[in-house]
Amino acid sequence: MSATLLVASAEYLPGLQKRAGLGGAIAFADTDALRALVTIARRRPGVGAIEREFATTRRGTSLIRRIKADPALAACDVRFITHDSDDAPWRVSSAAKPRWSMS
User: How many domains, the chain?
Assistant: First the structure.
């Protein structure tokens, strides 16, 4: 469990994949959130990097909740990233209802 999985809008993926630490990420467009979830369940990545704009949508929130609700994925560190900033990513807590905290 060392891979990183990236979910973002197709328009943001190329730029995000150029960032340090995300170049080798398994990447999915936000329209492929279900495929991303299947891959997360199968490969159990160490980090799930989710673009912040997508994370605020219904599909994004649902994806985060499903990851955090699965005990087999408890070690998956879900983080927000932004397409327009290199700031430190936001981390999602492991609470059933997502709470957002900076780490």
Answer: 1
